[in-house]
Amino acid sequence: MMRTVYCAILKVEAEALDAVPHPGALGQRIYNNVSKEGWKQWLERLTTIINENGLNTADIRSIELIEKHMQGFFFDEGDYGQVPAGFNAGGGAKK
């Protein structure tokens, strides 16, 4: 039987992730509260966040910033997780 969760992103019951997607308590919280579709939306946002902020996923400071964005995106905690200021998905940064 397929596992479902009430998705923090979609605000509906949806197919759950198959595995914990990130280490630690944050990963477990995401696993318990985010659907596959919600995670897919995060990955799209993450690409934007990494590119717009010039983050390096091998750098601990970048990972800490990404985790702040995760908390903002999934759980509306803090000031992170939104599309970077001035970002225009159709053509990059606004001038």
Automatic annotation (TrEMBL):
GO MF term (any one): iron ion binding
One Gene Ontology cellular component annotation held by this UniProt entry: cytosol
Domain of life: Bacteria
GO biological process: cellular response to oxidative stress
The keyword Iron is annotated on this UniProt entry: yes
UniProtKB keywords: Iron
PANTHER family membership: FE(2+)-TRAFFICKING PROTEIN-RELATED (PTHR36965)
Protein name per the record: Oxidative damage protection protein
Organism: endosymbiont of Galathealinum brachiosum
